[in-house]
Design brief:
By secondary structure, this protein is α+β, with helices and mostly antiparallel strands. It is 28% helix and 8% strand. It contains 2 helices and 2 strands; from the N terminus they run ββαα. It has helices spanning 29-42, 49-56; strands at 2-4, 11-13. The chain is elongated and about 40 Å long. The chain starts with a strand and ends in a 23-residue tail after the last helix. The relative contact order is 0.31.
Length: 79
């Protein structure tokens, strides 16, 4: 599978999608507690959970040429 970077135009080859953390919370117990407290109690639980889940599933791939974290056209296979 190939992903196209909009920053530099480089096409990165990869075997599958890599999911990288988009937030600044560490992947530990207290990081999860902080994320839960911030997103649920402070921001508010009125956000649409389906959209939130889709946003958490957003796939981010690092470009090998310019080290940009945002690569578009993911999942599109170039034939």
């Amino acid at each position: 599978m190939k992903s196209h970077c909009n920053t530099c135009g480089y096409i990165t080859d990869h075997s599958k999608h890599f999911q990288e953390a988009k937030d600044k919370y560490p992947n530990t117990f207290w990081g999860g507690v902080r994320k839960f407290v911030w997103e649920t109690l402070i921001v508010g639980g009125s956000t649409d959970m389906a959209l939130k889940k889709l946003d958490e599933q957003d796939l981010v791939l690092t470009c090998r040429q310019c080290s940009s974290k945002k690569i578009d056209n993911q999942g599109k296979e170039f034939q």
